[in-house]
């Protein structure tokens, strides 16, 4: 058994017993779940866990190869998935991913707007292009996806009101702000307002909408910038990560009661929790997944 397979097996056991009568593979059985940014980190683990719990997963990532790797992992563990790679900032991406989903599975239960990245600069050195790029990926792209999916979510027949939920990914930068991240902080603050509005507009159709504000999670965005990780969007190469000197600070997690970063599996588990029927009366909420930081 490979490391990834062992991890999925462990997660199925850990996450499968949430309540009476709910066993492994049952939380999202038969529910169609779109997850963007699912080629790496939190999005990838959310896709794998959702697939392990019986969801039909629509995997999307900017990188076609990583999209397919996530699809293959889900299928190799007995799940159901298709890949729809693409740039979420493209004007037609919302229509593209929704059409592919309906063509494959005939319905949409869940959307996880996870795709995103950072492009940090102090406000006095930030260009309009970098400002707009971050708002496009974190605000405009999720808006377009939900707008394209709306006809398949606004179902008037109560008998078709299955478990359905939209999750938008925010950050504690959107709650507290963060030096060097005026674009990211503004975008993530906007995500919480979008979430509450979607909650109110789609709630009458039994569609929940929640937001997750992550603290420090061990992903490409928090690893050492000197490692050279980057992403290329609309012809712009964006360096990912934070300076190694900040990561090496022995006091970096002193304000986290758990005294550590979270990992991708823990972060993804919060997504699956909110997607599941066990969160059926939670809507319009921003869940802070921070290890206790900021309380």
From TrEMBL:
One of its GO terms (molecular function) is oxidoreductase activity, acting on the CH-OH group of donors, NAD or NADP as acceptor. One of its GO terms (biological process) is fatty acid biosynthetic process. The keyword Oxidoreductase applies. The lineage of its organism: Eukaryota, Fungi, Dikarya, Basidiomycota, Ustilaginomycotina. It comes from Tilletiaria anomala (strain ATCC 24038 / CBS 436.72 / UBC 951). Keywords: NADP, Oxidoreductase. This is NAD(P)-binding protein. Belongs to the short-chain dehydrogenases/reductases (SDR) family.
